[in-house]
Amino acid sequence: MSITLGLLLTDKKLKRLSSNYHMSLPILVKPQFTTGDPSSHAIDILLSESSLPSSYSMDMVVQSYKDHNGVIYKAYAVEDHIFLEKRYSLPNTCGCDNPVAKYTIDRLKKCPSSFSSAAVKNATHNNVGVSPTMPVDLKLSPYNNEIIHDATQDELAVESIRPFIVKVEAMLNKALLGVDFIIDASDPEKVYCVDINLFPSYTGFEGVSRLMGELIRKKCGVSE
């Protein structure tokens, strides 16, 4: 278990930061905090030096981008109880022909099938009524919530990530966390934590209401 190289961009000067810390492209840039403002949910994937902006208007987190075969694992924790789901994610950069210089995803988190200019253009002009950045080769419904129900080549077991999540909960003194993981495309033995969220949505998970109730009673010192 590891964490992708990441830095907090507080002075807004991305070019200077990437130079000082020798971060190589591609990189991912996202707001440090998400709020109700749609711009706080926008994520930039920068693949070319020409795409590096001179600055950002808010504090940003800069992470090295790891190819992960377009799959992200989202863990939802209530103490040591872990719910895990797979979702479609961003594509690989390795072997991508004629890649775009920059790609931005918004709060809808619709991902392209490839970073190639042709794939992004096709997605933009596809006429099936889906979001312009919807993956054209995944054949998803425009209302699909992007959960992957089929098995993928590399699977992540709950037991393999539970110790890591419990340690993070202890460090933060928080019992309700959402933690995102990816599996390295070039080395499936490498698993990276790429994001941590406080009090995520637990919608759709069986038994979560009971666990929440037990946690509240525990925190209040009320016996069952």
> What is the global morphology?
globular
CATH architecture: 2-Layer Sandwich
Question: Which spans have pLDDT < 50 for at least 5 consecutive residues?
Answer: 126-145
Largest sheet: 5 strands, mixed
| Count of discrete domains | 1
- How helix-rich are the residues, as a percent range? 10-25%
Q: Characterize the quaternary organization of these chains.
A: single chain
Output mean pLDDT.
82
CATH top level class name: Alpha Beta
- Helical region count? 4
Write up what this structure looks like:
- The protein has helices at residues 14-20, 117-125, 158-172, 208-220, and strands at residues 2-3, 6-9, 27-31, 43-46, 60-64, 71-78, 81-88, 102-105, 176-183, 191-198.
- With 224 residues, the chain is of the alpha+beta class.
- The strands form two sheets. Strands 1-10-9-6-7 form a five-stranded mixed beta sheet. The protein has a five-stranded antiparallel beta sheet with strand order 2-5-3-4-8, with no helix packed on it.
- The longest helix is centred in the last third of the chain and has 15 residues, at 158-172.
